[in-house]
Amino acid sequence: MTNRDSVPLHMTSGQHVVIAAFDDVPEHAFEVFTVEDGFVTGVALTGPLAGEYGEPDNEMILRVISS
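Above: the chain sequence. Below: its structure as tokens.
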């Protein structure tokens, strides 16, 4: 997996990542539940979507912030 800058990301369940801003939602922290083909599932930890389930595409992941 790579992020938008083609930096390899080795995603696993439980990791916290930063999701890029989109629409009116700013960059925010996200906890990964599962790693799927082309996207991850999990929950937003910060920002206006905090506590909400989501399925962001891999390209939306900017960086891993904790393992």
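The two ends are 16 Å apart (CA to CA).
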